[in-house]
Amino acid sequence: MEDMVGRQMLREVMSEAPSDEWEDQATTDWENDPEAWKDPHYAAPRMVPLVEQFRDLYVDRSLLEGLKGEIGQGSPEFVDLVKARWAQLVRDGDPSRPLTADSRELRALPEKDVAVTLDRMNEIMGTVFDWMISQGKEPIPGWTQWLVPPVPQSMMGLLED
Questions:
Q1: Please, are residues 87 and 50 in contact by the beta-carbon 8 Å criterion?
Q2: Is 0.85 topped by the overall pTM?
């Protein structure tokens, strides 16, 4: 008998929809979480995951789609985390966000702005790389530390023409 009561209570709890207050709080928490990018496919109720926000912003034009060399061989998780981190910086209006992730827009920027964007892109990738290493993961096969110097010319060499 107790088992039936327990199952009934479980059914009632499981069938209850989250309250609007809970959803609002979950959304606020997610929007204010500086580490939301670490779970790139999660989103609060009625929100779009960060990795999808990035995709929506830069459909088929992302600098990250054209990475060459060893960085281009980064794990899918590494790429998703970079996209999520980038999207979070854009979403939050962070002043350290790159000016664009659009490859065409980048090539149209003045040289100084290209340098700023590539430096900030390097910072995002280095942050994600270091975090993944701290979690025991391998973001780029064979790499144990971030090897790309923060020099715009070295970053430009990683992009497809």
A1: yes
A2: no
